Amino acid sequence: MNSNDITKIDAFFNPSSLAIFGSLREIMGTAFWAIKNLQDFGFSGNIYPINPAAEKYDGVRGLKVYSDICDISGRIDLALILTPPETVPGIVKKCGEKGVKAIIILSEGFAESGEVGAGYQSQAVEFARNADMRIMGPNTFGVVNPSNGLFTIPPYVDNEKLEDGGIAVCSQTGSIGPHQMPLQDWSFPISKMCDIGNKCDVDETDILNYLANDQETKVIAMHLEDVRDGTRFMEAAQRVTKIKPLVVLKAGRSQAGGKAAASHTGSLMGNDKIYDAAFKQTGIIRVNTWREFWEVPRTLVCQPLPKGNRFAVMTFTGGQGILAVDAASDAGLSIAKFTKETDKKLKHVFHRLGSNPVDIGPAISDSRSQSAANPFETIETVSSIFLNDKSVDCATFTCYMGKHLIGLIPMLVDMFDKLSKNSSKAMNVWIYGTCLQSMEEFGRQLQKRNIPYYFDMDIAVKTHGYAAQYAEYRRSNK
Amino acid sequence: MNSNDITKIDAFFNPSSLAIFGSLREIMGTAFWAIKNLQDFGFSGNIYPINPAAEKYDGVRGLKVYSDICDISGRIDLALILTPPETVPGIVKKCGEKGVKAIIILSEGFAESGEVGAGYQSQAVEFARNADMRIMGPNTFGVVNPSNGLFTIPPYVDNEKLEDGGIAVCSQTGSIGPHQMPLQDWSFPISKMCDIGNKCDVDETDILNYLANDQETKVIAMHLEDVRDGTRFMEAAQRVTKIKPLVVLKAGRSQAGGKAAASHTGSLMGNDKIYDAAFKQTGIIRVNTWREFWEVPRTLVCQPLPKGNRFAVMTFTGGQGILAVDAASDAGLSIAKFTKETDKKLKHVFHRLGSNPVDIGPAISDSRSQSAANPFETIETVSSIFLNDKSVDCATFTCYMGKHLIGLIPMLVDMFDKLSKNSSKAMNVWIYGTCLQSMEEFGRQLQKRNIPYYFDMDIAVKTHGYAAQYAEYRRSNK
Predict the structure, then answer these.
(1) Which member of B157, B260, B317 has the closest CB to residue A322?
(2) Secondary structure class of A229 (helix, strand, coil)
């Protein structure tokens, strides 16, 4: 990607000014909501509402309304278009005259809806090419950038604040947005988000190349239904995976799914086996479910890559340990065999400790033992001993949370934070318990301190499996 | 299982009176908590606390304390023992003299902890056999029966009320109990729960035989680390699966997991392939993860078995539909091809409808269409049309929930309830959205009305796959 291309794509994520075309009617107007959302999320640039009936509005939410983009004296980096399809080509042409760099067509009703819409779409692309502008969409929610408050989503949004962090999410479905997912409740750390929609111009490879160079992005997660130009994408992916993890959910894996995808986007689907082989070759972490798409990046973004695939687990019951070991085997991890020194140190804490999985239960519940007198201290000591065993590459810690323990969350978070900071191993926490709200609050607090949490032990463990495979790829493809 | 055996096992779940041995110290005492929990959950039978220092207590929580079980004049069906291991054989002997039917040894420190403990365990078993009593445990939380308030769990419990329903859960880990899982938050419908612990006497087959005859139990979910007597278990399973679904999570699937299980319970593990083949042959629904163990029974307990494997799905975005179709293929479901009549009816509602997956998004968002004027009515009409297509056996409905929509929950629940009641097809709902609390509240309300909900689309769909396979087994093994 040359520097001109990067500047153009950057205008989608870091515009210093933007114009919004669409209905400004209070409550009912799409552009009205987009403006409100931009303001609520604290967008730092200038916002210019544009509406042919500008004279009707004595300003909208404190902003002057223009009837023509060319009437604006300042520079416009980005245009958001929320008007009906038939009006869009004309607006794109106008944007070209004004010297806009990038356009997001948020409206629906283009190639995805039939021939007429497809016509408007190609007209818009033609006007944009002539004026050296890039288009994202149509049929998209656009872009989210928590670091500058850019938030182009028009509908009402529950999430009031997004966590600024290292995960970039790019997709072909609007379902990834903060108007659709509980990102705030998850404390999901975001660098950039975008929905490339119909991909009439900007496609997955453009975004991938941009995110590769984006300093704020540590992990890239992409949901794809098709890949426009396979060779170009794979070349880009190969460069990216040498510097940061790329997690891909390729939808339409199954034959039936592929057919459904073709009818959804009008794109051609390749044979899934070809995708699979290409993804492996380029070090892409391929996940298979929507859940994994969200869960796997959360460990990758804040934990070191494991140096090998040797896994350890601490649980509160023996039964949980066995389930974790099954999950680890499924995920291609091996069960770490502790050194004799570790075994000795663990047995010194409590006689029944020593092997992996580490069942901490008896040590903290046997009222006749010293280890049960200070359960927190015991958990911390035991965790630290085996996490720092040289035969361990990654670990999952089980932690119980109930309504009556909510007051202990800060103490627990401090403990895991200390463990993580004093270790170079990849770790995450499986939270289980009796009360969803307390578990969720615990999870949020952990994630804010860069300790990834899971409510599903299998996914916590599987995440280490993915990370270990990717780390192995990195070592072999320096 | 003869009627005498059934009566004995029934004493564990439906005792009219019980004795509790253990510490009665307020706050710190294990038996104190067990009594408090029994009272809080409204246990309908008599409770007799027994403690050698009875004279110290002027009653505990309104109950007279006895120093010897034989001093009690009434009949005692069940004894709960919460005392240290070395005291347990003597207490079991005393129970025999009193004519107790069943004993739950809740304490730890027996076979699972070493030779000394194993000695106490076999002594206890010997005394019980001599007196024709049955023992559950040791190393267990015992039994939960929401219908009569029996709740033998000693520690503090967050769940204040459990949903009385059709799922029986039996396990070899204490982690299944309401002191460990968010059963109330899930509105998880329970008939019976038990943890068979060390299985010194009562084992999985005893429980299975009992639950087979239990009218309140519609689905049985078992977590097993080993099977004591394979032939006996498979014979029982074969009888059970002809009348109700049996979901089994067999832990220790992997070689490493098997080793871990052996060291946890001291039991021998069979080759997993043998289990797998035997489970298939007997119509057992084998799930592989802790998550599935809880999620799969929730559809089975309240929805009809599908008559075939033809799956339909309604989503709010095209992207979700493709993911659902991938999940369906993974789960062995085929994608239902709607009849021409259905296609016509759907197109009549909105021109872009017609095929499966059904993407309802455009029909309710295209402001120029009639279908968008009344989105609820449109969703209900469309759902009803394709759910009742003769080529559909089961369906998953996607439903969005956000903080701002919480007031609509009763309306949505009524709609799904009506759909379910007017159809003989198996259905469930995938809830996604922006706010976990609203999603959880929506889920609880749905489950209370016998509409199973999921936060994971893959599991919602997979559940239909398991149900379809089981239904096929039932048809072929009448």
Answers:
(1) B260
(2) coil
* CA–CA dist A338, A332 (Å, integer): 19
Q: What is the distance in angstroms between the Cα of A403 and the nearest Cα belonging to chain B?
A: 6
For residue A335, CA distances in Å to A321, A396, A438 come to 11, 12, 31
- Whole-angstrom distance, CA of residue B72 vs CA of residue B346: 71
Residues of chain B below pLDDT 50? 266-268
**Beta strand pairing status for A219-224 and A246-250?**
parallel
CB contact (8 A) between residue B158 and residue A434: yes
Q: How far is A316 from chain B (nearest CA, A)?
A: 9
At B454, phi and psi to the nearest 5? Answer: -140, 150
Architecture of domain A304-476: 3-Layer(aba) Sandwich (3.40)
Contact A309, A468 (CB under 8 A): yes
The set of long-range contacts for B118-123, using a CB threshold of 8 Å and a minimum separation of 24, is B118/B266, B120/B85, B120/B86, B120/B88, B120/B89, B121/B85, B121/B198, B121/B200, B122/B200, B123/B89, B123/B92
Q: What are phi and psi of A356, to 5 degrees?
A: -110, 130
A169-209: pLDDT as tens digits? 999 988 889 999 999 999 999 999 999 999 999 999 999 99
Q: Which residues of A touch B323 (CB under 8 A)?
A: 251, 257, 289-290
Inter-chain CB proximity B157 and A434 less than 8 Å: yes
pLDDT at site B234: 95
pLDDT value for B268: 44
What is the structure's pLDDT at A268?
44
Query: Contact A458/B290, CB-based, under 8 Å?
Result: yes
Two structure tokens written together for B404:
């701002």
Rounded to whole angstroms, how far apart are CA atoms A254 and B328? 9
A455: Cβ–Cβ under 8 A, 6 or more apart, which residues? A430, A431, A432, A439, A443
| ipTM value for the complex | 0.94
Query: How close are the terminal C-alpha atoms of chain A, in Å?
Result: 21
A80 and A21 in contact (C-beta within 8 Å)? Answer: yes
Q: Where are the domains of chain A?
A: 3-299, 304-476
- Domain B3-299 and domain B304-476 have a common topology: yes
Residues 6+ apart with CB under 8 A from B428: B299, B303, B396, B397, B451, B452, B453, B454, B460, B463, B464
Q: What distance in Å separates residue A257's CA from the closest CA in chain B?
A: 5
Residue A17, SS3 per DSSP: strand
| CA–CA gap between residue A459 and residue A445 (Å, rounded) | 19
> 3-class SS at B141?
coil
pTM score: 0.95
Pairwise CB contact (< 8 Å): B325 & A366: no
pLDDT at B266: 46
> Which homologous superfamily is B3-299 in?
Succinyl-CoA synthetase domains (3.40.50.261)
